[in-house]
């Protein structure tokens, strides 16, 4: 069987899965993406991403979408303000208008739309929540979806994120909590509704780091500022802290109290949030995770190497998608060899990035001055 004859199913229409589908399409290889969302507009896609030259940007070049990316990239999103909880501004980086696009910010929704629009009609099947796969007698798998439908494939790619239902076909590994929980909310149209807070946050990222808590705000391309409140606590804290996250008014008041001992300029960011408060436990997969080859199945992105959210996950997922697509195109007569080559390189790449991500988490948890020292050491290299 050649790759051009194979039925390729990609479970998960996130950035990694869509990148794979696009790279395959560029090389004349058909694939179908099965996505649980009912449509591309079914839910928000989150905040901004900084796409690295050797990560997301590399993948988009291989996908033939560099020009489209440059049209939606936000150079000014690279701006950074770093503060201590006592209100001391430790670092302010303002990006010049002619600065290189080394790590520009891009809206997740705009990036996903760019990828979806680059695919042929029918390449993404919306409203298909994957439940399980069963092996077929002659090879390949039958996919079972929550709506009762099924599909068959010769190659199954799990791009279905942290709670991947494809992963158990390859490994028993499960994500574990890293001792951090995040509560996400947002302030829509901040320039109009809260111009003083808009000026304080600036054009990019605003970080306030303590040793037991953090508060960050991120300017998005749609005029919204997303606010993230981090708590360095056990996994059960979200259910034992007593904060009624489903009740916006009461949650806002309770979260404000949690930061009442910080400088007074920070709590107005919490009080201005009108988006729902969404609690998220932060987990990761074991560093160095690998598995023995399983015919007709592989993983990419968070399904393969979930890491803490420190700016690497989406870049690595897109790089995975591009590299898997290129490997399949390079071995059209032997998909199994292509998958083995992809996995071997992916394991090595992911292990290095996971170790770096774990180190960054430790630095972030050391507080703003610890991060400042890290920046200064890196600048002096």
TrEMBL record:
<feature type="domain" description="FAD-binding">
    <location>
        <begin position="6"/>
        <end position="211"/>
    </location>
</feature>
<comment type="subunit">
    <text>Monomer.</text>
</comment>
<comment type="similarity">
    <text>Belongs to the aromatic-ring hydroxylase family. TetX subfamily.</text>
</comment>
<dbReference type="InterPro" id="IPR036188">
    <property type="entry name" value="FAD/NAD-bd_sf"/>
</dbReference>
<protein>
    <recommendedName>
        <fullName>Flavin-dependent monooxygenase</fullName>
        <ecNumber>1.14.13.-</ecNumber>
    </recommendedName>
</protein>
<dbReference type="Pfam" id="PF01494">
    <property type="entry name" value="FAD_binding_3"/>
</dbReference>
<feature type="domain" description="FAD-binding">
    <location>
        <begin position="297"/>
        <end position="355"/>
    </location>
</feature>
<dbReference type="InterPro" id="IPR043683">
    <property type="entry name" value="TetX_monooxygenase"/>
</dbReference>
<keyword id="KW-0560">Oxidoreductase</keyword>
<dbReference type="InterPro" id="IPR002938">
    <property type="entry name" value="FAD-bd"/>
</dbReference>
<keyword id="KW-0963">Cytoplasm</keyword>
<keyword id="KW-0547">Nucleotide-binding</keyword>
<keyword id="KW-0274">FAD</keyword>
<keyword id="KW-0285">Flavoprotein</keyword>
<feature type="binding site">
    <location>
        <position position="43"/>
    </location>
    <ligand>
        <name>NADPH</name>
    </ligand>
</feature>
<feature type="binding site">
    <location>
        <position position="302"/>
    </location>
    <ligand>
        <name>FAD</name>
    </ligand>
</feature>
<keyword id="KW-0503">Monooxygenase</keyword>
<keyword id="KW-0521">NADP</keyword>
<feature type="binding site">
    <location>
        <position position="108"/>
    </location>
    <ligand>
        <name>FAD</name>
    </ligand>
</feature>
<comment type="function">
    <text>An FAD-requiring monooxygenase active on some tetracycline antibiotic derivatives, which leads to their inactivation. Hydroxylates carbon 11a of tetracycline and some analogs.</text>
</comment>
<feature type="binding site">
    <location>
        <position position="50"/>
    </location>
    <ligand>
        <name>FAD</name>
    </ligand>
</feature>
């Amino acid at each position: 069987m050649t790759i051009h004859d194979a039925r390729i199913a990609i479970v998960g229409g996130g950035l990694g899965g869509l990148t794979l589908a696009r790279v395959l399409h560029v090389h004349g290889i058909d694939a179908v993406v099965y996505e649980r969302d009912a449509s591309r507009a079914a839910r928000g896609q989150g905040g901004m991403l900084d796409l690295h030259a050797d990560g997301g940007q590399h993948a988009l070049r291989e996908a033939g979408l560099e020009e489209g990316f440059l049209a939606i990239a936000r150079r000014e999103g690279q701006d950074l303000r770093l503060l201590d909880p006592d209100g001391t501004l430790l670092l302010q980086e303002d990006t010049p208008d002619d600065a290189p696009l080394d790590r520009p910010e891009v809206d997740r929704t705009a990036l996903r739309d760019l990828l979806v629009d680059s695919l042929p009609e029918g390449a993404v099947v919306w409203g298909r929540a994957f439940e399980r796969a069963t092996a077929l007698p002659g090879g390949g798998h039958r996919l079972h979806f929550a709506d009762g439908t099924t599909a068959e494939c010769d190659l199954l790619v799990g791009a279905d994120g942290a709670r991947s239902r494809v992963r158990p076909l390859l490994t028993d590994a499960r994500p574990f909590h890293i001792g951090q929980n995040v509560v996400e909310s947002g302030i829509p149209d901040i320039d109009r509704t809260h111009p003083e807070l808009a000026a304080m946050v600036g054009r990019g990222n605003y970080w306030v780091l303590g040793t037991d808590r953090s508060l960050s705000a991120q300017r998005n391309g749609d005029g919204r500022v997303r606010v993230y409140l981090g708590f360095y606590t056990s996994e059960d804290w979200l259910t034992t802290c007593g904060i009624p996250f489903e009740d916006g008014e009461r949650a806002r008041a309770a979260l404000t109290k949690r930061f009442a001992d910080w400088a007074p300029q920070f709590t107005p960011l919490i009080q201005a949030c009108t988006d729902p408060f969404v609690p998220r436990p932060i987990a990761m997969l074991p560093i160095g995770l690998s598995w023995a080859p399983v015919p007709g199945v592989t993983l990419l992105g968070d399904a393969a190497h979930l890491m803490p959210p420190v700016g690497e996950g989406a870049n690595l997922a897109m790089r995975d998608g591009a590299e898997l697509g290129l490997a399949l195109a390079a071995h059209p007569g032997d998909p199994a060899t292509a998958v083995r080559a992809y996995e071997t390189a992916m394991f090595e790449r992911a292990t290095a990035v996971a170790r770096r991500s774990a180190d960054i988490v430790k630095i972030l948890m050391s507080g703003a001055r610890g991060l400042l020292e890290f920046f200064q050491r890196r600048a002096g290299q």
